[in-house]
Specification:
The chain is α/β, with parallel strands linked by helices. The chain folds into 2 domains: 259 residues, Carbon-nitrogen hydrolase (Nitrilase/N-carbamoyl-D-aminoacid amidohydrolase, 4-Layer Sandwich), CATH 3.60.110.10; 209 residues, Rossmann fold, CATH 3.40.50. It contains 18 helices and 19 strands. Strands 5-4-3-2-1-14-15 form a 7-stranded mixed beta sheet. The protein has a 6-stranded mixed beta sheet with strand order 6-7-8-9-12-13. A hairpin with a 5-residue loop joins strand 12 and strand 13. Helix 15 packs across helix 17. The longest helix is centred in the C-terminal third of the chain and has 22 residues. The mean pLDDT is 93.
Length: 542
């Protein structure tokens, strides 16, 4: 007789450190899975009990009694279904492990220690964990399930060990952060692994925003032919059922729900929405505040904020000066009206003159320069932060990756903010995202997209007075920052040598600004911040 086992991929959005809240999310998901899918097994993402990544919370001795209590609570409350859940464990020797527990009949029946600990990009697992070295295979209703955790599935050895120990299906618990190409990378990798070991794989991924990281979900189940039989949605919590049928010695996976996936700009835009939404709500802010300039970056940031939080939780402030073009004022007001956000225009002329007067004796005999431009930006930053303090709304910074890379922004001025949605979005991509958003409904005035970008800090100013064309700039930044190419390699791509060296010099000397910038959402393989880490004080040159 054929054996049927239903495995539910519980793609949930935990909160790092909220152990009791995460237990409730786990228990609720198990109950829903049992009610709606008649599930046998519910599998959660990596480190679900603490959320991922808990970072130096793992160094707190007080964390582990809470985790142990959480496991006891899950055992006590989940008895009619198998629960496979991730958590950290500290043993009697004080060594810490990244674990997965198989909870059945109110007890932990088996546990697995993660073997491959990533220590690159945003990952620091070797800082916290010791590596396991043994497979974990559990029999349930005639099917042998092998447990793996995230990086383990990217290496052949843990999968091979599991198969040699008798595994017939691989359950992979993951907290795999988003980047634009990541979902396809995962599919390609699992297809290779399935081909190598000849076993079906059920891949469960975390969903939600955690500081700079966004976890896109997109959990899936792949059969031994390399076909995706069940696909969970991206950027949304979900419970997706996978039905396994064992006939003789063969385990087959039934075809079921395939959620549609996003592509290109749509996928990045959803990541930005989720990143803003979770950062604001998980940190308890009442809403957000944006300095709306009439330019592309603040316009895109406003659209993302409204899509993430609703217009009632977003406020925009225009702060015009003598150099602000009329069309900037008109376009800002039009977008605010279209998106139905609270909007105010605050003139900064008198404030600027007051600063100018206060500094007149100190600046006597000195020519006007970028100082006066930065003063305008800093006045705007001060106004935004004052409103933020008074209202409890967090300021969203609007700088894009191109500006962040070369320091084309004012410290304590337009860099001001608690969170920076576009921090990893190159300028050229910002234009494509704006066009994508307008394809859904026209919320960004067309002139904002088509006019030459300008900081409007002096007469007739445009960005290209100070920077290369953004197509060129973004290509050089990508080669140097993302691909770690040398100046010679970048020049070989066809870019002028002087331009390459100028851009690289700007990138290197502005690390001090980036270190003081607000956290922002990682969407590429190499984001500034916890991903790309460079010293501020450095004599290194190429």
């Amino acid at each position: 007789m054929a054996q049927h086992v239903t495995v539910v991929m519980a793609q949930i959005d935990p909160v790092v450190g909220d152990i009791s809240g995460n237990v409730k999310r786990i228990v609720d998901a198990c109950r829903q899975a049992k009610q709606h899918s008649e599930a046998d097994i519910v599998v959660f993402p990596e480190m679900t009990i603490t959320g991922y990544p808990p970072e130096d919370l793992l160094l707190r001795d007080g964390l582990y009694p809470q985790v142990n209590q959480a496991l006891s609570d899950i055992c006590a409350q989940v008895k009619d279904i198998v629960c496979v859940v991730g958590y950290p464990m500290k043993d009697s020797l004080g060594e810490c492990f990244n674990m997965a527990a198989w909870i059945e009949n109110g007890m932990i029946q088996a546990s697995y220690m993660k073997q491959n600990l990533p220590n690159y990009s945003v990952f620091d697992e070797q800082r916290y964990f010791e590596a396991g070295n043994r497979p974990c295979v559990v029999a349930y209703k005639g099917i042998q399930f092998g447990l793996l955790i995230c990086e383990d599935i990217w290496k052949i050895s843990p999968s091979t060990q599991a198969k040699e120990a008798g595994a017939e299906v691989i359950l992979s618990l993951n907290a795999s952060p988003f980047s634009a190409e990541k979902h396809q990378d995962r599919l390609n990798m699992i297809q290779r692994r399935v081909d190598e070991i000849g076993l079906p794989v059920i891949y469960i991924n975390q969903v939600g925003g955690q500081d700079e990281l966004v976890f896109d979900g997109g959990s899936f189940a792949m059969n031994t032919q390399g076909q995706v039989c069940v696909q969970s949605p991206e950027f949304a919590p979900s419970l997706s059922a996978v039905t396994l049928v064992k006939q003789g010695k063969t385990v087959e996976m039934q075809q079921s729900d395939i959620a549609p996936l996003y592509e290109d700009e749509a996928r990045v835009y959803q990541a930005l929405i989720m990143g803003v939404q979770d950062y604001v709500t998980k940190n308890g802010f009442s809403g957000v505040l944006i300095g709306l300039s009439g330019g592309i970056d603040s316009a895109l940031t406003l659209a993302i904020a409204v899509d993430a939080l609703g217009s009632e939780n977003v406020e925009a402030v225009m702060m015009p000066f003598r150099y602000t073009a009329d069309i900037s004022k008109e376009d800002a007001a039009q977008q605010a009206e279209t998106l139905k956000v609270k909007y105010q225009s605050i003139l900064i002329e008198e404030t600027y003159l007051a600063f100018e007067k206060a500094l007149s004796s100190r600046f006597l005999g000195l020519e006007a320069d970028v100082t006066e431009e930065n003063l305008q930006a800093r006045i705007r930053g001060t106004i935004l932060m004052a409103i933020s303090n008074k209202t409890g709304k967090m300021v969203l910074a609007t700088s894009n990756k191109s500006e962040v890379a070369v320091g084309y922004s004012t410290l304590y001025g337009d860099m001001v903010g608690g969170f920076s949605p576009l921090k990893d979005v190159p300028k050229t991509l910002a234009y494509r995202l704006a066009a994508y958003r307008n394809s859904l409904s026209p919320v960004i005035p067309e002139r904002v997209i088509t006019r030459a970008p300008s900081a409007e800090l002096r007469p007739d100013q445009v960005d290209q007075d100070s920077l290369p064309d953004y197509e060129v700039l973004d290509a050089i930044i990508k080669a140097y920052v993302k691909q770690d190419q040398t100046p010679e390699q970048i020049c070989a791509l066809g870019f002028p040598e002087a331009e390459v060296h100028r851009v690289i010099k700007m990138i290197d000397r502005n690390e001090y600004k980036r270190r003081q910038a607000a956290p922002g959402i990682k969407i590429t393989h190499r984001a500034f911040g916890r991903d790309r880490r460079y010293p501020i004080t450095s004599g290194y040159t190429e």
